[in-house]
Amino acid sequence: MILDASVLLSAFFPDEAQPQAQAVLRAHAAGRERLKAPTLIAYEVTNAIWQAERRGRISSAQADEILLAALGLEVELLPFQWGGSLPLARRFNRSAYDSAYLALAEAHGEKMITADERLYNAVHPMLKWVLWLGDYME
Q1: How many domains does the chain have?
Q2: Dihedral (C-alpha) 90, 24, 77, 12: value to the nearest 10 degrees?
Q3: Model confidence over 31-87: pLDDT tens digits?
Q4: Alpha-carbon distance 127 to 91, whole Å?
Q5: Domain holding 82: CATH number?
Q6: How far apart are CA 99 and CA 82, in angstroms?
């Protein structure tokens, strides 16, 4: 299953979907799910952690801990698929970043899970393989 940065970040930052995000990561750790993502996720997650630290939401020690924990998950990182993301960005009026996750899932015939409500609402009517994190059951 392809996960986007919003799922990974939800596991470490409190929000409504944190229990489901942590369940996804537990399933991965237990071998019930195999999580994959484009290499882009490393930049998105690192930037989000940095922004949280910069805004005083977390300390630098917490930022380091979150990054180490994310790295320790050993999510399989796959090369970014240039060719597939632009058509999806156009079709759904989404960012190139969002479309990179979609393109990877489409190219590998995988489901994708997101905690990004705007992304989910934009694509799910047409792409049934995009899953909403809030619906995840362990």
Answers
A1: 1
A2: 90
A3: 999 999 999 999 999 999 999 999 999 999 999 999 999 999 999 999 977 788 999
A4: 11
A5: 3.40.50.1010
A6: 10
